[in-house]
Amino acid sequence: RDVGDAKMAAGSGSPAARELFAEGLLQFLRPAVQQLDRHVHVVRESQVELREHIDSLATELCRINEDQKVALDLDPYVKKLLNARRRVVLVNNILQNAQERLRRLNHSVAKETVRRKAMLEAAGGYPQGLPGK
């Protein structure tokens, strides 16, 4: 509702209305960015755990292959595991980059919010109906 009110007010073109809209938009985006950042962090942790399990399984397969009296060709399976590990590492790097961009975006949103609040306070306070104080 606040964002809708701010959007309607922004249509009037006044600086206070634009500030109200910007503040509403920042308030709307911040929780989504923070939630996305938390989810990316959880996925990255699971990717690291998966990579560790793949490493352990590959080591175990190599050990089994060495201990077998009957020659089993486990090399293709080990190669598949190593390929899966490589993909997990690649995905983890992509997630790490995305999380860093989210962190920077979240920082920018917070910085912009502080800047706008300071600007509004210097101009004589918040416009009527602006959340935040």
TrEMBL record:
Single annotated GO MF: SNARE binding
GO-annotated cellular components: BLOC-1 complex; BORC complex; synaptic vesicle
Alphabetical keyword list: Coiled coil
The UniProt record lists the keyword Lipid metabolism: no
InterPro entries: Snapin, Snapin/Pallidin/Snn1
Pfam families the UniProt entry points to: Snapin_Pallidin (PF14712)
Keyword Coiled coil: yes
Biological process terms in GO annotation: endosome to lysosome transport; intracellular protein transport; lysosome localization; lysosome organization; regulation of synaptic vesicle exocytosis; synaptic vesicle exocytosis
Coiled coil: 81-115
PANTHER family, alphabetized: SNARE-ASSOCIATED PROTEIN SNAPIN
Family to which this protein belongs: Belongs to the SNAPIN family.
Record's protein name: Biogenesis of lysosome-related organelles complex 1 subunit 7
Organism: Balaeniceps rex
Top-level taxonomy: Eukaryota, Metazoa, Chordata, Craniata, Vertebrata
